[in-house]
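debug: dumping io for the single-chain case to check the tokenizer round-trip. Nothing else runs in this session.
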Amino acid sequence: MERYVWKASVAEGMQEEYKRRHDELWPEMEAELKEAGIRNYSIWICGRELFGYYECSFGRTHSAAIQARSEIVRRWNEYMSDILIFESDPSTGKRRSLTEVFYLA
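debug: decoded output
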């Protein structure tokens, strides 16, 4: 089981809206994440900073491929785009990756 973590921020003053949208997560989005093998998904907030963690039952490559071709995930990302801010790596234009420096099982 591979683990994945992401970091983002919420637009100024939109923390409660971010939480509300996740409290009302679309059932089809939940089903799509489970289909991608995503388990134990949690998101933490500190001020405007977000940290997400999940485990990939079938590996990160499989989970990413399912999400990349999903119309539901595309719609969810569009729905969240007005309040969710991801920092991009200037050299690749992709979301910045976090590097694990410690793990205790």
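debug: round-trip ok. The helical segments are 15-23, 27-35, 60-68, 71-80.
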